[in-house]
Design brief:
single chain; 215 residues; alpha/beta; 2 helices; 15% helix; 29% strand; globular
Length: 215
């Protein structure tokens, strides 16, 4: 009888722990709003009235399972969105739009990709327009790059010879659970010196650099 009671108690405790973990993910999950016209990076980004403004701000956050990033419909941004953090199977990180039916635009502006996912997974991306055909050089003639993504994981280094709408890269472990829906990806071209590379533009590329799996 005591064995049955103890076993029952353990099952209840295990269920409560699992429930608390799931609730904790829900409690920690945030929805971030981004508006290039009315946003401000000094805001908390947690409502449409107090939206963030720039990709730099969005790139500075490490996201938790269940987090959502919403870009304002009809607005546009230049540069590379680097999503940091992984969701999980039941609580993916979601990037989407709000405030209308017109897709928000991310112009990669000559960076290697409009959207970069590096060693993270369980990410859904919906309802964006992406293009990337500008020069890989800035106004000072310097190559456009984001700090922290280089070396063997970024062999091409910039958007000079390769260009992407969305680039998913794994060099540490297997990745899974990506969903891309309602995207309009167009005009993705590098700006190389070697004309043999002029057509090496990719809408979406899943890439591994070790014995890993991306699916």
């Amino acid at each position: 009888m005591n064995f049955i009671l103890n076993y029952h108690v353990k099952l209840v405790v295990s269920f409560v722990i699992i429930l608390l973990i799931n609730l904790n993910y829900c409690i920690l999950a945030n929805t971030y709003y981004v508006s290039n016209t009315s946003g401000n990076d000094q805001f908390d980004g947690l409502s449409s009235e107090y939206a963030f403004k720039t990709l730099n701000k969005i790139n500075s956050i490490i996201y938790n399972p269940g987090d959502t990033i919403l870009f304002k419909s009809g607005e546009s941004w230049e540069g590379m969105l680097w999503i940091k953090g992984s969701g999980n199977l039941n609580n993916p990180i979601v990037i989407d739009s709000y405030g209308g039916e017109q897709k928000p635009i991310i112009n990669g502006d000559g960076y290697q990709a409009c959207i970069l996912i590096y060693n993270d997974d369980n990410i859904y991306i919906n309802n964006l327009e992406l293009f990337n055909e500008a020069s890989h050089l800035d106004s000072l003639g310097q190559t456009k790059k984001l700090n922290g993504f280089g070396g063997l994981s970024n062999l091409w280094g910039s958007g000079k010879d390769r260009r992407f709408g969305i680039k998913v890269v794994s060099d540490e472990h297997s990745l899974a659970n990506f969903k891309f829906n309602g995207l309009h990806i167009h005009d993705v071209f590098p700006t190389p010196e070697n004309t043999n590379n002029v057509h090496k533009g990719y809408g979406i590329k899943l890439e591994t650099l070790s014995d890993t799996l991306v699916k």
